[in-house]
């Protein structure tokens, strides 16, 4: 029997590095993504649509085949993208996709995996990749901040809900700050539909955001690598007593300190 890692958002960035790291450590790796792209380190690739509970449930038979012979299962809920823009400008579909990707779909997948693990007596650890913006919101990024904050709350609640489970060992959240991936490229693509109809009062903010996301824009100080994040994920998978939170990058440690110890009025002045 081998350990099994199920990694979502596996086609690039943090997900791709996580697949490679777990494979090097001897795990059997199942890579899940919207558009499978040939993840070399994966033993199996599956198509995952986080916007459809029906399609997530449709993966159960294949997942059961993998889980039934596993020593332990690690589910890494890593899929994500940033829908930026002023909240007044976002469409219902933009909100829905942002929350389906970060909250509804990941929790449904965790529920399916837990059910299968319980049926076969296999221990499960759930690790979700959140963001510093889940605890320290910023202007023009409200939908992403809200979805990541909800991701935190939903995964914590999932842990509390399933305290009686004999399979669920832990639920952990990994909170990185800026990471050197294609996140900005995808965020810019998601922003494009708003640029032509942006509210006039926010026009300058959109210009600044478009410039910050553009190819060749300067990299923020202390930007982490995808491997830095993958190593925190692996730590949560292997340590004897996983922590509820794993922080990556100095920005996240600073934000955690500010939001824990400073009054909200002060936080708003610092974080704006």
Query: How are strands sequenced across the largest beta sheet?
Result: 3-2-1-4-5-6-7
- Write down the secondary-structure element order: EHEEHHEHEHEHHHEHH
- Residues in helix, %: 40-55%
Instruction: Kindly report the average pLDDT value.
Output: 96
Mass-distribution shape? globular
Spans where pLDDT lies below 50 across 5 or more residues: none
Question: How many β-strand runs?
Answer: 7
Number of helices: 10
Structural class estimated from helices and strands? alpha/beta
Radius of gyration: 19 Å
Structural notes for this entry:
It contains ten helices and seven strands. The longest helix has 29 residues, at 92-120. It has helices spanning 13-24, 53-57, 60-67, 92-120, 142-161, 183-195, 203-213, 226-238, 250-261, 264-271; strands at residues 2-8, 28-33, 44-47, 70-77, 124-129, 168-176, 245-248. Strands 3-2-1-4-5-6-7 form a seven-stranded parallel sheet, with helices on both faces. The model has no long low-confidence stretch (mean pLDDT 96). The chain is globular and about 60 Å long. With 272 residues, it is α/β, with parallel strands linked by helices. Helix 1 (13-24) packs across helix 8, helix 4 packs parallel to helix 5 (142-161) and helix 6 (183-195) runs antiparallel to helix 7. Helices cover 48% and strands 16% of the residues.
């Amino acid at each position: 029997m081998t350990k099994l890692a199920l990694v979502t958002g596996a086609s690039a960035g943090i997900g791709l590095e996580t697949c490679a790291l777990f494979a090097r450590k001897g795990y059997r790796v199942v890579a899940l993504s919207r558009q499978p792209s040939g993840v070399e380190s994966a033993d199996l690739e599956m198509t995952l649509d986080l916007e459809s509970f029906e399609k997530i449930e449709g993966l159960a038979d294949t997942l059961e085949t993998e889980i039934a012979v596993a020593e332990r299962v690690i589910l890494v809920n890593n899929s994500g993208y940033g829908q930026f823009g002023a909240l007044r400008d976002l469409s219902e579909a933009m909100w829905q996709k942002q929350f389906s990707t970060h909250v509804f779909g990941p929790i449904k997948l965790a529920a399916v995996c837990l059910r299968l693990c319980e049926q076969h007596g296999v221990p499960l650890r759930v690790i979700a990749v959140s963001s510093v913006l889940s605890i320290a919101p910023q202007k023009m990024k409200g939908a992403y901040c809200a979805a990541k904050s909800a991701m935190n709350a939903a995964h914590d609640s999932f842990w509390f809900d399933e305290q009686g489970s004999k399979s669920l060992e832990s639920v952990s959240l990994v909170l990185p700050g800026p990471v050197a991936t294609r996140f900005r490229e995808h965020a810019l693509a998601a922003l494009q539909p708003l640029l032509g109809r942006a509210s006039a009062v926010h026009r300058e903010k959109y210009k600044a955001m478009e410039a910050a996301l553009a190819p060749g824009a300067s990299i923020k100080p202390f930007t982490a690598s995808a491997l830095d994040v993958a190593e925190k994920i692996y730590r949560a998978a292997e340590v004897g007593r996983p922590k509820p939170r794993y922080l990556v990058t100095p920005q996240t440690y600073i934000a955690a300190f500010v939001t824990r110890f400073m009054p909200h009025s002060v936080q708003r002045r610092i974080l704006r």
